[in-house]
Structure formats: structure tokens, C-alpha cells
Design goal:
Order of helices and strands: EEHEHEEEEHEHEEEEE
Radius of gyration: 19 Å
Structural class: alpha/beta
């Protein structure tokens, strides 16, 4: 007799000491046949941060198109702050409930420029100097962990299995730990947080689902992964019970 596959059937238990939420599979078959972001593109979301899109907004659309091609994520799952200033972008304008449907088996990729200190947005513009001449100026906006958490909360985020920051070099600093704390303060539950330890390419390697990370520290892992306050595993991925 064929065994039934019960998707997403989980039990929830609170751990009083760590205040973590534990999601344990109630059936040994559920792990392999449940619907999650590894086998269901509709459970994979992408959010772009930065209202201007940085110095080269087209890079974000290039990133998104590559993601759709390799991951088959629905365009309805792409949201971007720059959509309010760029009418021709493929990102949708974020609303208060854009991320409300995500659950512990979902994945959210946050794409934003960054360095080892934090994600940021840079923009250039012209202004008039004291001599009355038009000169080019540059401005950078840093997205602190508190600001980032508030942005995601404003889009409705409450739960997510994997929160990946596609933001160059952010994994090499302390930002992920800061973001974990900021999300916890807003009662947002996350299984894993990840970020690259080098420069993340905006498109995938041809014929693969890999978006490479370049770093001179070739002996180190290209990604930093830390655990959040949800116990959930995604076998066959780097989000499989490990992480600081």
C-alpha cells in the first residue's frame, strides 16, 4: 500500500531557555515530500532594498532576470523599493502585506549593495557649489540592522526559513548577528541568516544555479550562515542545522 505524504505537518514547541521555536517533522517522510523553497519556486521571494537602485539600477533587474531564469520564481514574488522611482523595473512596489504569506519553509533573498560593515545605497547627483557652478556629489545611506529589520517588518514579514542577504562582503562582518537580534526584537522568526564573504556576482554561472562569490581569502567559506530562532532544516543545502 502506498504511503501518504503529508506536507507541512509540523509540531511547534517552545524552548523556555532560548526562546526559540522548534519545528519538528511529525512524520519521517514529510521532510522529503513537503513543499518548501527547495522544490516549490512560489515559496521563494526576492526583495530589493534602496529607493534609487544605487548608481546602476539596471544591475538589480539583471540580477532578478537571472534569478527567474535559474530558479523559476514567479515575478509576483519580486518586490523592490526602487520600483517607486523606476517605472520600467521588473520589481513590484512593496506593500504592507507583500511578505505576510511567507512561512518557515519559505526563503527570502534581500538584494542590496554592501560592504563588511552593512548594506548601503550610493547615489550621485548634481548640486550647486558656493561659486554657483554645478558639481557632482555622492551620497551613501547605510542600512543598519535595525533599519533593515523595520523595512522587512513593514512589508509584513513574520516568519521565514532562510533569510539570505545578497549583499557584497556583508557576511565578513558582524552584521548578520546584529540583524538576528533586530529581527528577534520585532518578533520576526527566522531559521537561518546568510550573507557572502566577498563580492557576489549579479548573474549565475552559465548552465548552473550558482551565483559566484569572489574573495582573495580563498581558504575561507564564501558564505557565512548563522542560525536564527527557528529550528528547521533543508537537507542538501547549507541550511541544514549548522551555523553559528
Amino acid at each position: 500500500m502506498r504511503r501518504a505524504c503529508v506536507q507541512n505537518q509540523v509540531t511547534m514547541s517552545k524552548q523556555h531557555v532560548s526562546s526559540e521555536i522548534s519545528y519538528e517533522e511529525s512524520n519521517s517522510d514529510n521532510q522529503s515530500c513537503r513543499s518548501d523553497w527547495t522544490n516549490t519556486p512560489a515559496k521563494h521571494y526576492v526583495v530589493q532594498i534602496g529607493q534609487y537602485g544605487g548608481l546602476h539600477p539596471a544591475q538589480f533587474d539583471k540580477y532578478a532576470k537571472s534569478t527567474v531564469k535559474k530558479r523559476n520564481i514567479p515575478y509576483d514574488n519580486f518586490f523592490g523599493e526602487m520600483a517607486n522611482n523606476h517605472n520600467n523595473t521588473i520589481f513590484n512596489s512593496p506593500e504592507a502585506d507583500s511578505l505576510a504569506s511567507l512561512d518557515v519553509f519559505s526563503r527570502l533573498d534581500v538584494v542590496v549593495h554592501g560592504n563588511r560593515n552593512s548594506p548601503f545605497e550610493a547615489r550621485e547627483f548634481y548640486q550647486t557649489n558656493e561659486q554657483g557652478r554645478s558639481v557632482k556629489a555622492r551620497e551613501e545611506t547605510q542600512f543598519t540592522a535595525k533599519v533593515m529589520a523595520e523595512k522587512l517588518a513593514a512589508m509584513g514579514l513574520k516568519n521565514v526559513g532562510v533569510l539570505r542577504l545578497d549583499s557584497c562582503n556583508v557576511g565578513a562582518g558582524a552584521y548578520l548577528q546584529q540583524l538576528r537580534a533586530a529581527l528577534r526584537d520585532l518578533d520576526i522568526r527566522v531559521g537561518y541568516l546568510a550573507a557572502p564573504n566577498g563580492y557576489l556576482q549579479d548573474v549565475h554561472i552559465p548552465f548552473t544555479a550558482t551565483r559566484p562569490v569572489y574573495s582573495w581569502r580563498f581558504w575561507e567559506d564564501r558564505w557565512t550562515v548563522i542560525k536564527g530562532n527557528l529550528d528547521v532544516e533543508f537537507p542538501g543545502t547549507r541550511y541544514n542545522g549548522s551555523g553559528r
